[in-house]
């Protein structure tokens, strides 16, 4: 493995196609900023230079890595995952494939398994997911809480997630847990009191974001607003799960609160599309969800053609989308959601970075983190063209090879 740490200089050369996501780098001016027969110079874990290979700065101190004409893209930015959980729901998936509908209530069975898991069990599972992400070219990923739903367990999940990423999202408002829903339980509003009080206080120190599942069967607009406003007042950025199972207030609420992203966006009214188009809020689409719930895919063309910024993410979770593969999401988005290969590659790299309001990842230009994926293919089109093939040959994070 190559160490790209302090003072280390590496030159990746013989790159057949380099996706920079820097439109200025592309003579044709495309959004992917493609440079052919390219090289990338890395110094101290950052991109120092990109351009045509013959112009690359070379000297005796540089370690040269010949990539044999392979394509290089920015590492995937997976802006939506739920990777801290216990158990799985394979039986629920199987029942769904036999015709049963997806319901938000399945979340509660994962809450039971997660509460029963020890810290070390959850930590080992997370470590395995991180390795899985790296193998598939993902270098930045967000992780949500939301399977603890008690002060103790939500804080535990936030703390464990923070061990593997800076992008932790507090999702205490995922669903109302059993103990609050029982006929003689305190009810949803009392649970929201807990979320905006003691639970937020315990989770905020480990989190960058607050999220709420604003959907029938989860939280109402008023309840979601309380949670998101409280999170914002505690210094967290806002993101929203909305419009997954039907039209509803999620998208409008996200735009009104200046959310970085509203995720799912499967069922949108014309007003929702117009609100997104006039905002800084990214619409994050999650192809794995529609794939594994057999719901209709979101209408991506309607969003992109209206000028909405679209990101793609895995939503990796044991219920609605148990894939961590961004290449898979790209393939589905291209095949079934009307995206071009270039749009899908951009949405899963630069789009994800915008959804996390990150300016140091999602593109390969001088100053950015040297986070990238080397494809066993001559162009990024192959991500959609060769579905199901292990196409990521190498993954580099902060100038160091991690897979
Ligand atoms: O993003 N929509 C809410 N939460 C997850 C599903 C979680 C689950 O089913 O366990 C999602 O799809
Ligand atoms: Fe989700």
UniProtKB/TrEMBL annotation:
GO terms for molecular function: imidazolonepropionase activity; iron ion binding; zinc ion binding. It comes from the Bacteria. Belongs to the metallo-dependent hydrolases superfamily. HutI family. This is Imidazolonepropionase. It is found in: Cytoplasm. 4-imidazolone-5-propanoate binds at residues 89, 147, 174, 244, 320. Binds 1 zinc or iron ion per subunit. One of its GO terms (biological process) is L-histidine catabolic process to glutamate and formamide. Pathway: Amino-acid degradation; L-histidine degradation into L-glutamate; N-formimidoyl-L-glutamate from L-histidine: step 3/3. N-formimidoyl-L-glutamate binds at residues 147, 317, 319. One of its GO terms (cellular component) is cytoplasm. Signal peptide: none annotated. Keywords: Cytoplasm, Histidine metabolism, Hydrolase, Iron, Metal-binding, Zinc. Fe(3+) binds at residues 80, 82, 241, 315. HAMAP family: HutI (MF_00372). Catalyzes the hydrolytic cleavage of the carbon-nitrogen bond in imidazolone-5-propanoate to yield N-formimidoyl-L-glutamate. It is the third step in the universal histidine degradation pathway. The keyword Metal-binding applies. Its main location: cytoplasm. The keyword Ion transport does not apply. InterPro entries: Amidohydro-rel, HutI, Metal-dep_hydrolase_composite, Metal_Hydrolase. Its EC number is 3.5.2.7. Zn(2+) binds at residues 80, 82, 241, 315. Residues 72-401 form the Amidohydrolase-related domain. It catalyses: 4-imidazolone-5-propanoate + H2O = N-formimidoyl-L-glutamate.
């Amino acid at each position: 493995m190559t160490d790209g740490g302090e003072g280390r200089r590496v030159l990746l050369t013989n790159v057949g196609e380099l996706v920079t996501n820097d439109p200025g780098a592309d003579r044709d001016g495309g959004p992917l900023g493609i440079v052919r027969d390219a090289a990338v110079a890395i110094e101290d874990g950052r991109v120092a230079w990109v351009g045509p290979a013959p112009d690359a700065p070379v000297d005796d101190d540089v370690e040269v890595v010949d990539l044999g004409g392979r394509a290089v893209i920015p590492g995937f930015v997976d802006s939506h995952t739920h990777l801290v959980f216990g158990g799985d729901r394979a039986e629920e998936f199987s029942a769904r494939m036999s015709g049963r509908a997806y319901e938000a209530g399945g979340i509660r069975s994962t809450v039971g398994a997660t509460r029963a898991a020890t810290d070390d069990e959850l930590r080992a599972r997370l470590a395995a997911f991180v390795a899985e992400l790296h193998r598939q070219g993902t270098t930045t990923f967000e992780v949500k809480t939301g399977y603890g739903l008690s002060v103790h367990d939500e804080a535990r999940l936030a703390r464990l997630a923070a061990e593997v990423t800076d992008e932790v999202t507090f999702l205490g408002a995922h669903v109302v847990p059993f103990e609050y829903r029982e006929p003689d339980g305190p009810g949803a509003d009392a649970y929201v009191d807990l979320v905006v009080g003691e639970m937020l206080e315990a989770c905020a120190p480990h989190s960058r974001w607050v999220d709420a599942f604003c959907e029938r069967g989860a939280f109402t607009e008023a309840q979601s607003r309380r949670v998101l406003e409280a999170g914002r007042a505690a210094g967290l950025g806002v993101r929203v799960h909305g419009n997954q199972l039907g039209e509803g207030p999620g998208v409008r609420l996200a735009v009104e609160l200046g959310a970085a992203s509203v995720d799912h966006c499967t069922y949108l009214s014309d007003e929702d599309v117009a609100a997104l188009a006039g905002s800084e809020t990214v619409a994050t689409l999650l192809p794995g969800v529609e794939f594994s719930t057999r719901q209709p895919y979101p209408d991506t063309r309607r969003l992109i053609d209206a000028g909405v910024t679209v990101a793609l993410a895995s939503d990796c979770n044991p219920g609605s989308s148990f894939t961590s593969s961004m290449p898979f999401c790209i393939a589905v988005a291209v095949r079934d959601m009307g995206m071009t290969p270039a749009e899908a590659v951009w949405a899963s790299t630069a789009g994800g970075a915008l959804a996390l309001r990150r300016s140091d990842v999602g593109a390969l230009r001088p100053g950015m983190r040297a986070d990238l994926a080397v494809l066993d293919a001559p162009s990024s089109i192959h991500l959609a063209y060769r579905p199901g093939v292990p196409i990521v040959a190498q993954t580099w994070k902060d100038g160091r090879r991690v897979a």
